[in-house]
Specification:
The protein contains 3 helices and 8 strands, in the order αββββββββαα. By secondary structure, the chain is an alpha+beta fold. Strand 6 and strand 7 form a beta hairpin. Helices cover 43% and strands 23% of the residues.
């Protein structure tokens, strides 16, 4: 039969062990992320943002993305980061999604945040909601490329015209330089073909 003193000591050690485990769990337990919000909702993408309690030893995050009424999940996990947002990509248009966010520390993960439900728009709805005066960065880049191409074409055409004008001026100068020589040649040819004058000024007559 065990001595009462020994059994009491064993019980005391067991209680101390439970208290120490509870203390470690309390130190490593994280709070769930707060103010989880879905922003920049597009047809095929969105951005989820959140906040954490000050003082939580967070080293990363984990996001669970799920289509409503569908069991298939997408799990996104990042560590060694202080980021408080994450892009959700490759979404389907006109589809409802549920998102949970968890904080990660060296001791484990926090409970999941409150679920956030959002729906992606249809392509037609997105195009209709876009105002005529709204210009996206992609359109700005395309316009800049078009302007650059037009400028290149204009510069090439101007260079070609300058070359044509320079060639014309050169040919004109050559023709102009050759004109005095042509006049001299014409005058010389005309003098050679004229009737020679006789020293006595009379005309030769044949004897009858």
């Amino acid at each position: 039969m065990a001595k009462p003193g020994l059994s009491a000591a064993a019980v005391l050690l067991l209680l101390l062990g439970c208290l120490s485990v509870s203390s470690v769990n309390a130190d490593t337990l994280l709070s769930a992320p707060l103010n989880v919000t879905i922003r920049e909702i597009e047809v095929n993408s969105a951005v989820v943002t959140w906040e954490i309690l000050e003082g939580d030893p967070v080293i990363g995050f984990a996001i669970t993305q799920q289509k409503k009424d569908v069991r298939m999940l997408r799990f996104i996990q990042e560590v060694n980061t202080t980021t408080r947002s994450c892009a959700l990509w490759d979404l389907d248009e006109d589809t409802e999604y549920i998102v949970h966010v968890q904080s990660i520390s060296m001791g484990g993960s926090s409970p999941p945040s409150e679920p956030v439900l959002f729906r992606t728009p249809k392509e037609s709805e997105k195009m209709a909601s876009k105002s005529p005066d709204e210009v996206t960065m992609e359109e700005v880049g395309q316009a800049a490329q078009l302007r650059a191409g037009e400028l290149i074409i204009i510069v090439v055409v101007l260079i070609m015209w300058a070359g044509v004008i320079a060639l014309f001026c050169r040919q004109y100068d050559i023709i102009k330089d050759n004109e005095p020589n042509n006049n001299k040649d014409k005058a010389k040819n005309s003098s050679e073909c004229s009737t020679p004058e006789h020293p006595q000024g009379g005309l030769l007559r044949s004897n009858v």
